[in-house]
Structures are given as structure tokens and as C-alpha cells.
Fold this sequence. Notes:
The protein is mainly alpha-helical. The chain is 80% helix and 0% strand. The protein has 2 domains: 63 residues, no CATH class; 88 residues. The protein is built from 6 helices and no strands. The radius of gyration is 34 Å and the shape is elongated.
Amino acid sequence: xxxxxxxxxxxxKELAAWLGSEHHIPVSPRGVSRWFAGxxxxxxxxxxxxxxxxxxxxxxxxNPDATxxxxxxxxQRMFSLLALEKKDIKTWAxxxxxxxxxxxxxxxxSKRADESAEKKAKIAAVTIASNDSENDxxxxxxxxxLLERELKLL
Length: 154
């Protein structure tokens, strides 16, 4: 009988009546409706997951050297296309938001890496200057001159 409902050969009301009379399961047509909606949603999700997995396997086969970013971008395109196909604006917007946030994080990480590299370069320059100075303390010449002036050693 449930198969007949899936094939649209019976109504939810008929299925509810059948469950009550044949299996002694009291359920309203509304309960059948809720179950049926959840069942269809699970089936669609399973089909979409299988579709994504198959396409991802094909992508990896065609692009064995693909980076994580390329695989991520491919997945985002897949989710966007599925959302557009289903006219699911909320999922499409979420997918776009994830892509945007990921790009923002990459820009922030790049800025931090650049700033860190600059700081390391400055520290290295000071260290090299310190090591090249002719004093025993390893201080840069400007610092030595300042200390000697302050201590009136000159």
C-alpha cells in the first residue's frame, strides 16, 4: 500500500485507513503526510549524496593532481547547481556564503603570513646587524653609540 502511495495510486487518507484496519496502527492522514514528506526528503538527500559522490570520483579520476582548493571549488559548484535545479534559494545562498567566507579567511591568512614574513625579515636584519657589529654584546652600532653617549664613555 505504501508503494501505491509512492506511485500515487492511492491517497494518504486511504493509506491511513489501511494501516488502521489491516495493521491496527492508528494514524491520521496528516501523520501519513508528515511521514511521506520526510521519506521523500530522505530519498532526495540520498540520491543527491550519491550524485555528488559519483561526480566527485569522476572529477578525481580526471584530475588526479587536484588540490584541496580545486576539489572544494568543484563541490561548491555541484551544490550550487543542485540548489538551482531544485530552485532552493536558501541552500544556494548558503553555498555562496561558505565560498565567500572561505575566500575571506584565505585573504586574512595571506595578510597575516605577509605581516609575519615582514616581521621576521626585520628581526633577521637586526640580528645580522648585531652579529656584524664589532662590539662584544652583539648590539647594533647605533645602540652602542647611544649607550656610550649616555654613560659619557666617549
